[in-house]
Amino acid sequence: MTVKRMDNILIVVDDLEAVKEFFVELGLELEGQTTVEGPSVGSLIGLGDVRATLAMLRTPDGQGIELDKFHTPNAVRFGPVDAPVNTLGLRRIMFAVDGIDAVVARMQAHGAELIGQMQYGESYRLAYLRGPEGIIVGLAEQLGGV
Questions:
Q1: How many whole angstroms separate alpha carbon 33 and alpha carbon 35?
Q2: pTM of the prediction?
Q3: C-alpha–C-alpha distance, residues 146 and 137, integer Å
């Protein structure tokens, strides 16, 4: 048996509303939000006394990002909020966009910090942004002729 698709990526956050607004501004759609708790949730994820609020967002092509705000037990921060891209672990999420300059400007107006930009040959323009809670988002715009 093989994997059928990737359903979602989980990001544990402290300020659920700020991170949710960031991804909605980027162009994801809020699919739903709920609170989960109890022994069955705890046994699934290996924690006791779990209570968390989950928000599911989807890209236009159906890829998902699940944002979790843990109320109990408290979330644990590992490393600095503004960790560099070469820090071990999940470091960024990359999205394909059209009009990268406009997307960067819109996200900066929404509080994102531009880390850097470059053009990869004649194929792509790329930008890295740091959003709320240090989340790094990569943007890629495919250039004509590819």
A1: 7
A2: 0.89
A3: 23
